[in-house]
Amino acid sequence: MPTTPVNNTNTQLPPASIGTISAESVIAEVENLFALPDAAMQLSVLLSDPDTTSAQIVDIISIDPALCARVLRLVNSAYFGLNEAVGTISRAVAVLGTGPLHSLVLASSAGQAFGNLSGDLIDMEKFWKRSVYAALAAGSLASRGGPRLRERVFLAALLHRVGQLVMYYQLPEIAKQVIAAVARGENCASSEYALLGFTQADLGATLLEHWKLPVALTEPVRYQDRCSEAPNHAREAALVHLAGIIALHMESNVASGESAVTLDIDPAIWLLANCQPEILESVIHEVDINWFQVISLIAPNAMLIY
């Protein structure tokens, strides 16, 4: 990774420990704990095949009663504002289309996969709120790129920090050292790389690969902090990077005071994302309008504090 590691011997692992684990080995130990429902994984495989039919998608969702009920609840939520109730999965596919339906299934299933995770290092309610901020911001930033791009970056941004959840659960002592380094003003990704030889972005992307998600989703997650290096999806990686900055800005309540146009964002990222800084205020406004409805769909437990 090209990011310069943090030069601080107080935060380093013993030399013998560095390089003895990898993102792949960490994910291999936790993939059963953070697993998607079988139906959701089968759906991801189906939707990567252009020859998949609507009937096949309906069949996969329908075999999982919990997933079926969740999809119908999502489709009939106020967020979509449909004029009449949708009572069947086949109707849901017809009304929404396979792309948005796939986004719904994966987003809600990811919320379920991490639904029971808790601990001293992570506030799950805040985690999902910030993730939803990022997803909506990415979708808004990508709105001029067409619905397929918008759906992809919505999901990638929603999941761009799942590697942190894995790190907090499986590597808590490392996570504490990273938190301390960030508190000292050091770069988060650089600190992670200095301690482990990989970052939370690598962990997250590796988990998504184990979930059999397409490279159009996994690559932007992996390269979110080094967008220009993404082999095939640099624009998506830049959009996820921008969305993460906006989400952090909103989480910190800076939006209520400091103007969004003062955010410190590399002009090269804007160029790579094919966006203009002038749209920041409208993006934040759109996120602020919609986040409450979206988080109630993806992570209902997070609603308990609002």
How many β-strands, per DSSP?
0
Rg, rounded, reads 19 Å
Helical content class: 55-70%
Which geometry do the CA atoms define?
globular
Rounded to the nearest angstrom, the distance between the terminal CA atoms is: 39 Å
Structural class estimated from helices and strands = mainly alpha
* Uncertain ranges: 1-17
Largest sheet: none
Strand content: under 5%
- What is the average per-residue confidence, as pLDDT, rounded to a whole number? 83
Order of helices and strands: HHHHHHHHHHHHHHHH
How many helices? The count is: 16
What does this entry look like structurally?
The chain is an all-alpha fold and 306 residues long. Helix 1 packs across helix 12, helix 2 runs antiparallel to helix 6 and helix 3 packs across helix 5. The chain is globular, with a radius of gyration of 19 Å. It starts with 22 loop residues before the first helix and ends in an 8-residue tail after the last helix. The relative contact order is 0.14.
What would you say about this model in short?
This protein has 306 residues and is mainly alpha-helical.
Task: Set out the fold topology.
Elements lengths: L22 H8 L7 H10 L6 H9 L2 H11 L13 H8 L1 H16 L10 H18 L5 H12 L3 H9 L1 H12 L4 H9 L3 H11 L4 H8 L11 H18 L15 H7 L6 H19 L8
Helix pairs in contact: 1-12, 2-3, 2-6, 3-5, 4-6, 5-6, 6-8, 7-8, 7-14, 7-16, 8-13, 8-14, 9-10, 9-12, 10-11, 12-13, 13-14, 14-15
Key words describing this protein structure:
about 300 residues; single chain; globular
